[in-house]
Amino acid sequence: MPFTRTINSALTDPLPDGETPIAGRAAYQARRRRGLPFVPVHTGGGCFALSLALPDGEVLVADDGQIAHDAADHGAWLACFYAAPSSPYDADEDDMTEVYLGDGTLSFADDCTALADTLARWVAARRADTGFVLAS
């Protein structure tokens, strides 16, 4: 199925009858419920990830580099933190921390929940260490 709506619409708007949600929709909504203001970002080549800007870097989340594919085609979520001043596009291995990697055995719903729970704990621990406040 070709992707025909905006990424923001695909993440947040009600779905018409019969439309399959994109994989990023459930993950995005699960994180929002936990107070994590992720936003979609275009990463090139028609691919999108979910991004959370932090004072000392950025967390990016995708499934095989993409959130805008059918949820039925989901493999496993990957969330990585890229320490500033690097970006995901020029980071060295030393500048990147894997925050979550699904093992591919969880159901889509369970992987979304595990991702959101892991990210909420990770962000809370960073907040406690650094005292930053998330913008909403």
Model description:
The protein has three helices and five strands. Strands 1-2-3-4-5 form a five-stranded antiparallel β-sheet, covered by helices on one side. Helix 2 packs across helix 3. The chain has about 140 residues and is an alpha+beta fold. It has helices at about 5-10, 25-35, 110-130, and strands at about 40-45, 45-55, 55-60, 80-85, 95-100. The chain is globular, with a radius of gyration of 15 Å.
Coarse structural class: alpha+beta
Global morphology:
globular
Tally of individual helices: 3
User: Strand share of the residues?
Assistant: 15-25%
Gist of the model:
The protein has 136 residues and is α+β, with helices and mostly antiparallel strands. Helices cover 29% and strands 24% of the residues. The longest helix has 23 residues, at 108-130.
